[in-house]
Amino acid sequence: MLHTMSKEESGQEYFGTNCIEWSPDGETLALCDYEGSVMLWNAISGQHIRSLAGPITENLIKGVWDVSWSPDGSTLAVGWREGMPGGSSAHDIYQVMFWDAESGALLNTLPDSQGPKSAWSPAGNILATAF
Q1: How many structural domains compose the chain?
Q2: Which of 2, 18, 26, 37 makes the best surface tag, with the fewest CB within 10 Å?
Q3: pTM here?
Q4: Containing domain of residue 30, as a range?
């Protein structure tokens, strides 16, 4: 089955997908964009489930650079980047936000992480971050 998911279906304006990740059960796709949101889509029906949005910061470039599902599919780790336009990446701020995949609630934030990329351990009890 092929379904092209569009911004019109989600009701949101966005400027390109930065990453995409299947849920462990294969039923949901998480798409992240440069504007700082993650959209969850039902991969079977093609329906938009919900959007997760990080903090809005004036005059900063931002974006979601990575999304990873916990092995049990209950939590999404979302790697976020903020920085000044045209500035050095040495001054960028990276954090990882943890979202409840079912409710869309923000569970916790790991500030000052080592980078926006993340990977869960197979047991789901450790999250590694890197640039």
Answers
A1: 1
A2: 2
A3: 0.77
A4: 15-54
